Amino acid sequence: MPNLIVPGAGGFIGVNLLRRIMFDRQFDRFERFVLIDPLSYGTQTIPQEVLADSRVRFERASIYTPGLVADLVGPGDVVIHLAAEINTADSPQMGVADDPVGYLRALTDARIGRLLFVSTADVYGINDSDDLTETDPVHPTTLYAAAKAAFEAYLSAFHARDGLPVVVLRPVTIYGPHQQPGWLVPVAITRALAGESIAIYGDGTARRDWIHVYDMCEVLVRGALTEAEVHGQVFNVGTGTEETVAALVHRIIDSVADPRVVVEYTAARPGDPPRQITSASKARHAFGWSPSRTLSAGLEHTIDAYRRAHTG
Ligand SMILES: NC(=O)c1ccc[n+]([C@@H]2O[C@H](COP(=O)([O-])OP(=O)(O)OC[C@H]3O[C@@H](n4cnc5c(N)ncnc54)[C@H](O)[C@@H]3O)[C@@H](O)[C@H]2O)c1
User: Fold this and answer.
1) Does residue 247 lie within any of the structural domains?
2) How many angstroms separate the CA atoms of 307 and 298, rounded?
3) How high is the pLDDT of residue 92?
4) Are strands 263-266 and 243-244 parallel, antiparallel or unpaired?
5) Who contacts 79 (Cβ-Cβ below 8 Å, separation ≥6)?
6) 7 pLDDT above the threshold of 90
7) Which of 3, 42, 211, 297 has the largest count of CB atoms under 10 Å?
8) pLDDT per residue over 117-147, tens digit each?
9) CATH code of the domain covering residue 110
10) Are 268 and 205 spatial neighbours (Cβ–Cβ below 8 Å)?
11) Nearest Cα to Cα of residue 176 among 23, 301, 77, 282
12) Which atom, in ligand 1's list, is nearest to the CA of 36?
């Protein structure tokens, strides 16, 4: 039986995904869940209930460790690649010691069944599109997006040259429980619950499509299991609705309703796209998937989760 391999399993999406799939009978087709993550930021973990499962093997290591893939990955395995250094958005996700080509060569040699690679809608950079589509030009404006676009280019070459069965997802901004501290939604909720001011980069007019992590996990489930012809393809992942950064922060402030919480505007970050939205119609069609949480319901759910964690 094949294994399910999850590089980056200890992060925000990884922990939510593990909780989503571990007890789903559809995943009984996998003999083992092989989780690979160096847990290097100090804030991530693999949940105890996951580690306690006899099917789980956890390797605390970088996926780019020489020889690791050859040891752990075999024919027919499905790899859901979440690994990235996204806590340092200004740094490339691939460090100088990382070897994506060696990694992809090892996956090719292992004759895996599928590599589902989580890229980002940031690869589109600054654009005026009302609805980003997968054929829109890729034009990274941050090092993070450039690293993702470079990885996608390697995937394209390995697919064309060696038949590596790859699928690329380009999600918009994801939010929900267990996100690493430092990102807008967890920062805003944590500070609002503590009665502190919230900083916004720029004037807050940047428009974003926000998707709840449970909806993201659902498209990962479909992408991992689908029998449809999806190899070599790219899929945007979003809700098709938008909200400005300032309006999102005000939703959180209104929900927490503490008069001490105010917004402070700080310098804009260079390269931040003013707009990023996609209805993800290709993913909806291919995977029979659609996001089920509105921003309002998803934010309330997330605020509740942080409130429960906050009050212990
Ligand atoms: N959170 C978002 O809004 C968002 C949006 C679009 C795309 N993504 C992508 O989704 C993926 C997961 O994001 P997240 O929000 O869970 O981030 P995260 O930082 O919470 O998790 C990433 C995990 O990858 C691990 N990792 C880093 N380098 C690794 C390596 N060399 N080998 C193995 N593991 C490694 C980290 O330790 C971390 O646990 C990333 O690839 C990210 O670029 C996230």
Assistant:
1) no
2) 14
3) 52
4) unpaired
5) 5, 6, 7, 73, 107, 112, 114, 115, 116
6) yes
7) 211
8) 999 999 999 987 889 999 999 999 988 899 8
9) 3.40.50.720
10) no
11) 301
12) 33
Residue 72 belongs to domain spanning: 4-176+211-238
* Cβ within 8 Å of residue 242, ≥6 positions away: 207, 208, 209, 275, 277
Using a cut of 0.85, tell me whether the model's pTM lies above it: yes
Q: C-alpha 100: how far from its chain's center?
A: 18
Written as six digits, the tokens of 32 are 């083992």
Beta bridge mates, 118:
169
Confirm whether 29 is domain-assigned: yes
| pLDDT computed for residue 277 by the predictor | 97
What is the domain count for the chain?
1
Residue 34 resides in a domain: yes
170 is written with which tokens?
């380009």
37 Cα–ligand 1 center, Å:
10
Pick the atom of ligand 1 nearest to 175's CA. Answer: 3
Rounded Cα–Cα distance for residues 290 and 137 (Å): 24
Which amino acid is residue 147, in one-letter code? A
Closest atom of ligand 1 to 174 CA is 3
Is residue 42's pLDDT more than 80? no
pLDDT of 302 reads 98
Assess whether the C-beta atom of 180 lies below 6 angstroms from ligand 1.
yes
d(CA 7, ligand 1 centre) in Å? 9
Q: Does the beta carbon of 62 lie inside 6 Å of ligand 1? A: yes
254 located within any domain:
no
In angstroms, the Cα distances linking 120 to 42, 93, 140, 217, 259 are 24, 12, 10, 15, 36
Ligand 1 within 6 A of CB of 40: yes
Residue 88 confidence (pLDDT) above 70? no
Closest ligand 1 atom number to CA of residue 180: 20
The pLDDT tens digits of the residues spanning 187-228 come to 999 999 999 999 999 999 999 999 999 999 999 999 999 999
Is the CB of residue 206 less than 8 Å from the CB of residue 270?
A: no
